[in-house]
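Work Package 4 report. The design task specified in the project plan requires that, given a folded chain encoded as structure tokens, an amino acid be chosen for each position. We show below one input record used in the internal validation round.
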């Protein structure tokens, strides 16, 4: 009996040679390895200021992703999705095939072409929350939880959430613990190992 108890302690109970530590899942946040040279990232990878763009640290692998941005201070800004080939020092984004973004003026740009536009009475203001859904075909926009019915498409390849700022704009990113209810069928961004 004592031998069985000792075996159990050695394998399971005392954290000795049989203990296998659990790997903590990474947190989705802005990626300081993929940002413009004049960008400042603070608040544990959730706030962007300065000048330029930044990608999130997780690509959108799952079928239907959702994330949010809160406008803390207005200025020139843009939010959407981009590939890792995007030039994060050149704002505004949306000038080439590597980004699809909503700009501060309500226009949605991809490949230097306006793909859609928010209604004139629905331009995001300081304090507003802009939600984004992406399903590998279409990007859709939500303003303070309301669907803006402003779809845009055209980007190809592996994409990441992207945000850019200029002219004193400050934006906060929400990749979990959202301000608004997720649209039906969409979920927070998952790292690839979380999907399987």
């Amino acid at each position: 009996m004592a031998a069985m108890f000792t075996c159990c302690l050695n394998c399971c109970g005392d954290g000795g040679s049989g203990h296998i530590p659990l790997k903590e899942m990474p947190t989705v946040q802005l990626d300081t390895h993929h940002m413009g040279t004049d960008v400042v990232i603070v608040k544990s990878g959730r706030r962007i200021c300065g000048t330029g763009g930044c990608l999130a640290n997780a690509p959108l692998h799952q079928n239907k992703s959702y994330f949010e941005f809160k406008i803390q201070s207005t200025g020139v800004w843009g939010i959407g999705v981009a590939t890792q080939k995007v030039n994060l020092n050149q704002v505004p984004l949306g000038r080439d095939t590597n980004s699809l973004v909503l700009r501060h003026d309500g226009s949605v740009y991809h490949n230097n072409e306006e793909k859609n536009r928010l209604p004139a009475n629905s331009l995001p203001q300081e304090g507003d929350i802009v939600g984004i859904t992406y399903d590998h075909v279409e990007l859709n926009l939500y303003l303070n939880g309301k669907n803006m019915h402003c779809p845009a498409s055209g980007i190809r390849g592996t994409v990441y959430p992207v945000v850019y700022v200029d002219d004193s704009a400050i934006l906060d990113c929400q990749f979990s613990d959202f301000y608004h209810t997720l649209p039906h069928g969409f979920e927070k961004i998952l790292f690839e190992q979380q999907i399987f």
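Helices lie at 2-13, 192-195. Validation will be extended to a larger panel in the next phase.
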